[in-house]
Amino acid sequence: MLFGIHDFINSQPLLEPLMKKKVGLEIRTGSPAQLADQLSCGELDMAMIPAIEYLKHADRFRLLPNISIASRNKVGTVLLVSKVPLGAIRSLAQDDRSRTSVALLQVLYSKVFPAGLKLESQEPDPEKMLENHDAALIIGDQALGYSREGVSIYDLSEEWFNRTGKTFVHAVIAVREGIEIEFTQTLMDAKQEGVQNLDAIAETQAKKTGHPVTLLQDYLKNKIRYDFADEEMEGLVHFQSLCHETGLIPQKFPLKLV
């Protein structure tokens, strides 16, 4: 079975244990958006993909229960950084490696941004993104711990929670219809092992990325949630409704679990 998963810091509590297990699950890494495309065209059997990509294709995919990447309040890795007031933004650079973040930006601020806003996808370099644009959507490892003088920084997960009071689901594990799942327990065991070893994972990632280990410990232990249970499903269903209202998805389907 071909399983795709991104290699961001927030996926390490699942990815690190899986890489050690060597259980016949062939693992491929890529950006969340790339993995969604590969799953959709049949190059992968199962993948961790942006939540919005599942919602776009909910009639074709099933969801693996108990595992997601979610947050409840501030997360620190989905940031809107603006040099001007929100209503004055004329151009915005966006990192579209995770299309859920792009969708969340539209759900939260489409009525605030001025008409004719110019959106441009760019490589995930915050300073270059802000060179020629009023604002930037910065996600993932590049956003963690980001600060800059003279700008306003909006944490989109925090804004979502303030408005809805619900958990936000960034990524889910989706399975193509017709694919038999043989490794569910392996994935559950890997998640359990990872969650029990977050300090060690933070230390490994600190050496790899240069981020302070305390920042990574706080992020992995206090900002990210790895479950996909009632709270997460409720948040995802609410996001689905708002995406439908905003015109980001054509129709709604009931969540379908493996």
CATH-level-2 architecture of the largest domain:
3-Layer(aba) Sandwich
Specify the number of helices.
10
Walk across the major sheet and give the strand order. 2-1-3-10-4-11
Class from helix and strand fractions = alpha/beta
What CATH calls the topology of the largest domain is: D-Maltodextrin-Binding Protein, domain 2
C-alpha termini separation: 15 Å
Proportion in helices: 25-40%
Write down the overall mean pLDDT. 93
List SSEs in N-to-C order.
EHEHEHEEEHEHEEHEHHHEH
Taking all Cα atoms into account, the compactness measure Rg is 18 Å
Overall spatial form: globular
Largest sheet descriptor: 6 strands, mixed
Number of domains: 2
The CATH class of the largest domain is identified as Alpha Beta
Total DSSP E strands: 11
Q: Low-confidence spans: pLDDT under 50, at least 5 residues?
A: none
**CATH H-tier superfamily of the largest domain:** Periplasmic binding protein-like II
User: Which percent band covers the strand fraction?
Assistant: 15-25%
